[in-house]
Specification:
homohexamer; about 280 residues; 2 domains; Aldehyde Oxidoreductase, domain 3; alpha/beta
Amino acid sequence: MLDVEFAVQKLWEFLREDAYPEDLTSRIVRGVKAEGILLAKSEGVLAGLRFVVPFLTRLGFTVQANLNDSERFSKGQEIAVIRGDGELLLSVERTVLNLLMRLSGIASATREMVEKAKAVNPNVRITGTRKTTPGLRAFEKYAIEVGGGDPHRFGLYDAVLIKDNHIALLGSVREAVMRARKVASFTKIIEVEVSDLKSALEAVEAGAHAILLDNVSPKEAKEVIEEVRRVNGRVIVEVSGGITPDNVVDYALAGPDVISSGYLTHSVRAKDMSLEVKPINVC
Amino acid sequence: MLDVEFAVQKLWEFLREDAYPEDLTSRIVRGVKAEGILLAKSEGVLAGLRFVVPFLTRLGFTVQANLNDSERFSKGQEIAVIRGDGELLLSVERTVLNLLMRLSGIASATREMVEKAKAVNPNVRITGTRKTTPGLRAFEKYAIEVGGGDPHRFGLYDAVLIKDNHIALLGSVREAVMRARKVASFTKIIEVEVSDLKSALEAVEAGAHAILLDNVSPKEAKEVIEEVRRVNGRVIVEVSGGITPDNVVDYALAGPDVISSGYLTHSVRAKDMSLEVKPINVC
Amino acid sequence: MLDVEFAVQKLWEFLREDAYPEDLTSRIVRGVKAEGILLAKSEGVLAGLRFVVPFLTRLGFTVQANLNDSERFSKGQEIAVIRGDGELLLSVERTVLNLLMRLSGIASATREMVEKAKAVNPNVRITGTRKTTPGLRAFEKYAIEVGGGDPHRFGLYDAVLIKDNHIALLGSVREAVMRARKVASFTKIIEVEVSDLKSALEAVEAGAHAILLDNVSPKEAKEVIEEVRRVNGRVIVEVSGGITPDNVVDYALAGPDVISSGYLTHSVRAKDMSLEVKPINVC
Amino acid sequence: MLDVEFAVQKLWEFLREDAYPEDLTSRIVRGVKAEGILLAKSEGVLAGLRFVVPFLTRLGFTVQANLNDSERFSKGQEIAVIRGDGELLLSVERTVLNLLMRLSGIASATREMVEKAKAVNPNVRITGTRKTTPGLRAFEKYAIEVGGGDPHRFGLYDAVLIKDNHIALLGSVREAVMRARKVASFTKIIEVEVSDLKSALEAVEAGAHAILLDNVSPKEAKEVIEEVRRVNGRVIVEVSGGITPDNVVDYALAGPDVISSGYLTHSVRAKDMSLEVKPINVC
Amino acid sequence: MLDVEFAVQKLWEFLREDAYPEDLTSRIVRGVKAEGILLAKSEGVLAGLRFVVPFLTRLGFTVQANLNDSERFSKGQEIAVIRGDGELLLSVERTVLNLLMRLSGIASATREMVEKAKAVNPNVRITGTRKTTPGLRAFEKYAIEVGGGDPHRFGLYDAVLIKDNHIALLGSVREAVMRARKVASFTKIIEVEVSDLKSALEAVEAGAHAILLDNVSPKEAKEVIEEVRRVNGRVIVEVSGGITPDNVVDYALAGPDVISSGYLTHSVRAKDMSLEVKPINVC
Amino acid sequence: MLDVEFAVQKLWEFLREDAYPEDLTSRIVRGVKAEGILLAKSEGVLAGLRFVVPFLTRLGFTVQANLNDSERFSKGQEIAVIRGDGELLLSVERTVLNLLMRLSGIASATREMVEKAKAVNPNVRITGTRKTTPGLRAFEKYAIEVGGGDPHRFGLYDAVLIKDNHIALLGSVREAVMRARKVASFTKIIEVEVSDLKSALEAVEAGAHAILLDNVSPKEAKEVIEEVRRVNGRVIVEVSGGITPDNVVDYALAGPDVISSGYLTHSVRAKDMSLEVKPINVC
């Protein structure tokens, strides 16, 4: 509920970025009432409408949403109908489309990876990373959840993840985990990024709650996962590194608890949508 | 010069998004001095370092940049070397990489389209659109310029572009252009989006400075461009609609002044980079 | 429509400037309902009520506006009637009056210049400059439009205007225009400030879309305008430099397309208004 | 000292208003070093340089100030010399001039009124009002002080001033003063606006510390002042209402402690200044 | 009235501090409607509900307040009943309680001191100081007023208070007061902090409106107060320094006009309250 | 490192709250150089100087710190010496003292509880709660860490804590935990607040990582802790509810992993400090 407030405030900032201090062109339709059909131009999973509807409503529009976030849309489907002041509608059109298209792109790719991975490993979780677009973190994490994924850390402040660079500065996995256990609150899990079995076991022995296997082949992943499980059945194992819808099945078959993918946010394609507007008499 | 200040302030906001209120993990390297190598993991065109260097410098780092924005980097090239406080370096790593990777992705794709198009039509301009990531408009427009493109409108406030939806609300191209000429400042150009010759000519006759041919085939584009040129040699003609590096040559051969591409910002892939960190004694 | 949102947010900031963190005096009328008559104390053209009405409405007042922006008011005319909480009304009174008085001052002076100039040169446009009050740019540009003027550039970001200082740093008008054509988007016009015929022609030949003749007499202006027109009939010619309602006719007779005046924003007198308040039973 | 920080932050906002997100034109002088002479184009009293110098210094400029705020400048005098990056200098030029011109206009008018009034009434104070430009209150109050005036209330939060509208809602001067004495902190003075002797005496008897005589002739003012003084020698008497440099002497002769003038901020003319720029080799 | 707007905006910031970017736990009750009883867990004076009610209302809750600020509550009393979305209610619970508990703690302690002091010295005022919690000044001053106290200065901007450190830098009380009379507006009172009779008399002679007797015993206070009164009956005398509910009567008996206490804001205990929530069918 | 930047920015806001728009009194010492001794007026543990030093340094002061945060100070000890502009020093004095006094109060109370608890239960952690002062969360959590405590959750966004009100809305502990496991990221721990053994065991069986025993006596706590440990040795047990330095030993003896205390932030007394200022010739 609350994130809606956060999102609406952000949508305002995005609108200002586009329409600061005003829209020169749309003045030509001042006084005209309009109806806009939000149209999908390809199939996918919807994300972002949860925020767009209250944003438009507060601007005075009447919005009829035919779908909710996380539902699939098909090519040509009318996702929503928006009625109200024509000048304002044309001013907000691009801001709204830019957000919906990007978030739906992320949700669609996440859903694809989730379905492919769960088909072979029903308990695996697909997660995003912190490789998000600067300024859009909360939205993109939301889109991953809408797609059925796990958002992973929102930021550096909410869980401990010891990465290769931390270890490089401290000299050993053990030293890094020990320090983390000392400075971290009891409310935080400690995860360690490793790329081989030896480091994985060192992390587990030092008390890590989770292991992030980065940049290993599916075969290597399988070997490490099995050995870690043998040593400590409660440790969570995550794999990452260049995983996309194309190779996610191979990694899912390796048996991890979690598969994380930067692709979902840094290189995904937007889902094309458009707004088809016509004049109306009343709204 | 000024945009650097704007960008540095934005980088602060992006860092806050990731590290609010602080980085739980990097505390484990408190007091360690570090050197980080910014490494390219594929080839491309660099964009964003112009803002990252002063950002890091103000945070107390020493930065040695081996490349400038708009220069090409090859896979494995050391783009920059950063020295300073290790804890802080690991805290800013992801924010910096996220920006550089995305902007370099845009600049690289733009450069590719510019080179392909100019090879067959030396005077054509490649431009972005307003289909940018919410909140990143100024950065993404910058990356397009770095790639050799034209930024087109920054927002709804700096030029008049009458789109299909404006025309739909007013009933005719002529009416729309007439209204725009009345309300727009003499300092603004008036461009009109059309998809056929008839509308294009109507816009030109009504006094438009530029025509945006949207969603036409290269063949249709060629016919409209030639006829518009015949009627009025000063009108600028832009083509758009699903143009990517794969089909840009076909459109360039149609002879437009400008080719615009939403792909450059809404669906481009980031260029992979990493930061390789090691401890040092002094910085 | 959108600018109303922008303006209302700014009005909040202006109110905070006056009433931070609260109004010590108006507490003495807590609980009293009031009606306030917004009264003109001289004649003029109204500007700003478009923003003041929604601002007051959101604060819970009922507002009955007897005039719209751009309409004339006479001395003693009741511009609007405001009803609601007396304490709050007295707290916002000065903020609202300060804005209305200043904007109406600008709109009135603009209207005067527009009417005088068009009487002798029906196609001429009167425009403001960037010599606006710091922080009030968008409001003052709006007041100029309300007065019948052209707002000219909103800021350095929306059109190219090469001024004497740019030319001084580059050595020649030609060099400056050439550089601008290279770095500016195709969506921007290029205007050049000059003060003699030779420079004007150099700018036109280099490809400038508009010429700003600064600090010339009406007689000199006439000569340059005629010669520029002879060479290139499409170039827009603007004159500026110390132009006020007192001498605008002389410049209008010289035949420019545009007359710009810094006086309209940096030295105009406010239009006096007051709020006459009385207690009421219900609102 | 502190207000400098406040002012520099505001100057940043003013610059953003003009140069958001960047200056399209000044890019043509990228890389050129420049020297700018800040030149007075009429005589007056300087105000604002105290804030402009640190603002420019932090932007990387070297500034040599030949005058301090509150000193007089003559027509053609070189107020300051600024050296540094040419592109940035042209980007900040207008923001700096707009502030200096307006504040110096206010300081100059204040100085004129102070000198005229004190020539006939050496102990009188000239003060501003809250009729300031929205958003510029602190700057304009500063300019009044620089001109030798008293800033009066900064806002509704720092002293009690019971105006005609407060009295209209409460029914009597006595009631208003009594309520104010009850709710106001002991740290605040209570001033009451009146326009006749009867109300003035009622306010004094109720315990007001100061009387604001509004919209009375100099002759009426004199009579009320003398009678109030006779009744209570400690009460401060202020006069206001249409007082400008033209009639200030008449009011000063009436013997008030304070003369306040809205003209100083709502209708004063800016002092013309310019920046003359030339290229240099080093800065 | 106005301060409500200020406070609601602040409450938003406080909520963001706790729930940024969202509440992970309360998602588990998504869709559940709830009723929450705001319960007092000890007796005291209520403060803060004036702001909490509109804050909750704008979030969509229905609030039934059984008490107003400044009224006493007893242990176990139901202060208010809140109905609405359960997820959101649990997200705002702590923010609302944190504010109400702290402000009610301050109001209760103030009321205790006011009642004790007035029992022996009916005209004395109890005031707070500037020793408030950073960021909460306006709220804490409000709580003092609600408790029956005088807020004293809100900040360094609204009255002159010459403290020991000012005098230490200038060498004498006389010099300090003389300078203050010169630079301060006529709308400001001048108060001087002293700790002995000699300095008190020096301040009075130099023209101070008020004396702050700091860190003296009740006996010393009495002597100074009587002597100052003898010399000048209009000067306000304030005492301060380690005054709490435990010793306030001793100081009140010394006869000051004002007693100020930093304890009220820097060391007061919060009043315990809780929110008891249950599911409901409709709200 | 980063939190210093965050804190310095906040200190600016706190200063603005006190000195907006400027300090009326300290102008009387304009031009005087000063040295200020930061003096402890009771013993305690220092917290906050880590942020105050860079804040003062950026304002131009030279600061010599004799102690670091987390070190003990004795009554009368000179904590730091600050040299620089006298006017500015007196303007920032109260802001700096307010922060240091409050944070040191929290750190001192935390240290006391930590030492008492660890004397009887060496592995127990003392933690704060979310009952912090609105707007000061990050500072108060920091002070708890400086005192040797564990900060617990920073906000609702970084760990799952199912409280009594969540359970009240869902009907059962099991249902609440099950839902949390479904919606929470794998990176978050799930803690459940209970007040009896039955609920504790239900939570453990449902998969909670931690149990918060709220409002139980030390004896009850002991019984639940032992039984929970018997069932599942890995579950973390936290106790809370009215725990202060006076009763912390009793609870520590019950054997919990964690003791949390709202007292540390909602009702702690500030540690008294002062700044003793004198004039100097150079700084």
